[in-house]
Amino acid sequence: MVNSSLTYEILMYLNSFYFGMFATCEIGMQTLKFVHLVYKNDDLIQEAIVLLALCLLESIRIHLGRKGSLSDHGYHVWLSAILTIPVSMGVLYLLFLQTHVLSLEYILCALMLLLQITELAFAILFLFSLCKQPTYD
């Protein structure tokens, strides 16, 4: 049987580093696109708000997930799992609905979505393992 708590913690730890790189690259690419490409009226502001909201929510989600898995508090993991939905929507926006999407963004966003889906699956397994009665054999 896989230790879902350990796997979930490893995935959250990996995501904390990947997200730092992801956010840095996305902000850099957005800045580059804002300077060199032409945008319609409110697209520039909308994409900046989506990126900043994504960074804020993902930071909160990672913090809650790591705190919950280390202390075995299910409500932190539940909140982290629930925050996966808006964060995934933000990544999907960056992947498909932006005005200009670079090839590197396709790769980074696809990896981010894969990591989030895997984390969500192990968060659910971890939450089920918290609900199980402990056996002392």
Category by helix and strand content: mainly alpha
Distance between the termini: 17 Å
Low-confidence stretches: none
Based on CA atoms alone, the radius of gyration comes out at 17 Å
Q: What's the order of the H and E elements?
A: HHHH
Please state the overall shape, judged from the principal axes of the Cα atoms: elongated
| Count of discrete structural domains | 1
- Summed up, the helix count is 4
What does it look like?
There is one protein chain. This protein has 137 residues and is mostly helical. The protein has one domain (4-130). It is 84% helix and 0% strand. The protein has four helices and no strands. The chain has helices spanning 4-36, 43-71, 74-97, 103-131. Helix 1 (4-36) packs antiparallel against helix 2 (43-71), helix 1 packs antiparallel against helix 4 and helix 3 runs antiparallel to helix 4 (103-131). It is elongated, with a radius of gyration of 17 Å. It is found in: Membrane. Pfam families: Transmemb_17. Its main location: membrane. One of its GO terms (biological process) is non-motile cilium assembly.
Keywords:
137 residues; mainly alpha; 4 helices; 84% helix; 0% strand; elongated; transmembrane; membrane
SSE layout and pairings?
Blueprint: H1 4-36, H2 43-71, H3 74-97, H4 103-131
Helix pairs in contact: 1-2, 1-4, 2-3, 3-4
Keywords: Membrane, Transmembrane, Transmembrane helix
Organism: Clunio marinus
Membrane topology: Multi-pass membrane protein
